[in-house]
Write a structure and sequence with these properties.
By secondary structure, the chain is mostly helical. Helix content is about 70%, strand content about 0%. A two-stranded antiparallel ribbon has the order 1-2. GO terms for molecular function: nitrate transmembrane transporter activity. Pfam families: MFS_1. InterPro entries: MFS, MFS_dom, MFS_trans_sf, NO3_transporter.
Length: about 450
């Protein structure tokens, strides 16, 4: 008897039924009861929604570097905290979302999640127009941005239900990589949108700075129409697969040691990737730019100019490496990623107590190559989990590891506000070295006990 991804039996020889909102006799491992058209359509719509989700998650990282310019008067520590809060809330929300795919189904999960993104968008739209908005209100709004990143732990397992194992590396790599581009998109287009009146809305006054006017609120409101479109597409075109699992059934992932070890791997790759992506602009400003010891010197780098590059590189690599993971396995790429992270984090640490702003290119190149290796690891880990874990546990494990990994922006933000940045980079390099050893022994070496 054939089974669905969650272990629900299907009748031998039964035909796939695609009418209605729920697919009947769906089994991706059997060509007779799988529809590539439905699978790829689901991937496209949910990935479009995920791009917007990651724009919301990193909205604060695009806005925070401009807040003092428009009259907010926040300390460096407060700015790090603002950029860290979406990471905290994202991790907590992912711990909820990881259980929702078999409860809600794909259609409602993506549709209602898309509408939730409107809450932080409208909140920041109004908040930045008043420089007297309190720091605690800004903290609450930063917390709500975690809704965007939190939905990842529901989207990814849900998408996994639609694809056979042989294509999951490609499908999940595309969804995660292209979805992650939202982190780069908001950091790239945010500063551009802030430079002019948007949609002909001339009745909204710009925020005033010493060097001219800014429309910081544009970064928050621009994506509202696209988010509404995502919700409409989800409710009208997506379908559900007959996957059901109780809360008790889903928590058995915690008895599998690979759940915990793969969580370490994902913290190494996505935790560091998301954390340093969120703090990259502020880190540049505080080390080499306008809030550093070099403040007042000419031609200093601006964090907003470079912040988008890290998530852009990591996201594109993650999307492009899926087919390579399908061909060679994910474990070897996770191991290569770990070694690369050790080297590049140590390299970057050498430039975090600079004596001259001319050292900035060395730091920048180290960080960009670090993001490259993180992207490889993000693709590798998501290929590993469906291969080394039982079918019904794989989706929950993906959701859980994604939840823990998404705390990266929070912990890295707090660490950077509490200690010397170079010390923190060396700690991260040591952690990556430990994870690389574990990955090699258990997953990547020849005759490893759990190759994936």
């Amino acid at each position: 008897m054939a089974t669905t991804p969650a272990g629900t039996p299907t009748s031998p020889g039964a035909a796939l039924q695609t009418s209605g909102r729920v697919l009947t006799n769906w089994n991706p491992e059997d060509a007779a009861t799988w529809s590539p058209r439905i699978a790829w359509r689901t991937l496209a719509i949910s990935t479009y929604s995920m791009i917007l989700a990651f724009c919301v998650w990193f909205l604060v990282s695009a806005i925070a570097p401009k807040l003092n310019s428009i009259g907010f008067g926040l300390t460096t520590g407060q700015l790090y905290w603002l950029a860290a809060m979406p990471g905290l809330s994202c991790g907590l929300i992912r711990l909820v979302y990881m259980f929702l795919p078999p409860i809600m189904g794909t259609r409602k999960l993506v549709g209602w999640s898309s509408l939730l993104y409107l809450i932080p968008m409208f909140g920041w739209f109004f908040a930045v127009q008043n420089p007297h908005t309190s720091f605690w209100v800004l903290m609450v709004l930063a917390f709500t941005c975690g809704i965007g990143g939190g939905t990842f732990s529901g989207y990814m397992p849900s998408t996994g239900y639609f694809f056979p194992k042989r294509l999951q590396g490609t499908a999940l790599g595309l969804q995660a990589g292209i979805g992650n581009l939202g982190m780069s998109i908001i950091q790239l287009v945010g500063p551009i949108l802030m430079g002019f009146s948007l949609f002909g809305i001339t009745w909204l006054a710009p925020e005033h700075t010493a060097s001219g006017n800014l429309w910081v609120h544009n970064a928050a409101i621009f994506f509202v129409p696209w988010t509404i479109v995502a919700a409409i597409l989800a409710f009208t075109l997506l379908k559900d697969v007959p996957v059901k699992a109780s809360f008790r059934q889903q928590i058995d992932i915690f008895s599998n040691p690979d759940t915990w070890l793969m969580t370490l791997m994902y913290v190494m790759t996505f935790g560091l990737f998301s954390g340093f992506s969120a703090q990259f602009g502020l880190l540049i400003n505080s080390t080499y730019g306008e809030t550093s010891r070099f403040a007042g010197m000419a031609a200093l780098p601006q964090g907003v100019t470079y912040a988008f590059l890290g998530p852009l590189i990591g996201s594109l690599v993650r999307a492009g490496w899926g087919p390579l993971c399908d061909r060679f396995g994910g474990a070897i790429w996770t191991f290569i990623s770990g070694v690369g992270l050790v080297v590049t984090l140590g390299w970057a640490a050498l430039f975090l107590n600079p004596s001259d702003p001319g050292q900035f290119p060395g730091f920048l190149w180290a960080m960009l190559i670090m993001f490259f290796f993180a992207g490889i690891g993000n693709a590798g880990t998501f290929k590993q989990m469906p291969m080394i874990m039982p079918k019904r546990q794989a989706g929950g494990a993906i959701g859980f590891t994604a939840a823990i990994g998404s705390f990266g922006p929070f912990f890295i933000g707090i660490a950077l506000s509490a200690m010397n940045a170079a010390v923190w980079f060396w700690i991260c390099a040591a952690f990556c070295a430990l994870c690389s050893v574990i990955c090699w022994i258990r997953y990547a070496r020849p005759r490893a006990p759990f190759p994936g």
